[in-house]
Amino acid sequence: MNSNNILIGKPAINWIAAQISEIDNAASSHWVHEHKTFRYENGKLYGLRGFGHHAAPARGLRRFFHILLQKRYRKMGTHFTSFQRLDQIAAHITRRQNRLYELDVLRQSLSLASIAETIPQCLFGAPTVLIIGDGFGSMTSLVLAAWPTAQVINVNLTKTLLVDLLYASSILEKDSFAVTNNGAGVQDFLGSPSIRLLGLRATDALLLRGAPISLAINIASMQEMKIETINQYFDTLRSFDKDTIFYCCNREKKVLPSGEVISFENYPWNNGDHVVFDELCPWHQYYYSSVPPFYHPYEGVVRHRLAYLSKQ
What we know:
9-stranded mixed β-sheet
């Protein structure tokens, strides 16, 4: 990044795009496989695999089908006072991004509503929210749109980070998102409220040690990381100056292509962690499709936990 601590706007996108041909040392065997077909050429993305679902907006009978089968998930949202607002914001975001408001996005709305309902103070004032391993910038976009004073740090593998920034930046002013690869850049971002979003490559995540993060979120991506990467994230989360509130929603167990077994219970949780809730995630157990019986169980059971992580 030469003499610049931080790159803002279009130069940020260009810099990340220039890194995608490099070997990503943070990538697990799962992502080495999924990223094989990834390309970014002339401002367009190709070969996206493993990022979550993405489709064009639905109309007519197709739109009716999605609305009908999403009813059971929206019923779950009636338990959360902020869900209706977040649901409407998510619908607006997906229209802006010219994409379908499908289940992947709806689940993000439900998870964020559950966090806001349970520990509302973590989003008061001007919070700094860390999102680890987003997809298509869905949670990043939702937090930025729903909390106009929030700053978001998005950490991801380089190729996936490029996708996150392209989508999330579409709802922001042109000079309100940035990237960095050094600690001074992180501090510049934290001291600049007009910059709403900072992108960090996963290999640079240690730059966040001691940062004033009020909430960290990981949904359905720790299950696809190397064990040492998960351990590094937890070490970083426990180093934050503020209380470390962590929402983690992942498969209870997943076997990566390398044979490595990633288990939720074997994440480096601590006996000193204060667990607010820990249960099977209701909106992550089934997905829907046009194939009867329409609702189908995911390949593995998904658990979500909201906890204050103890300090080391």
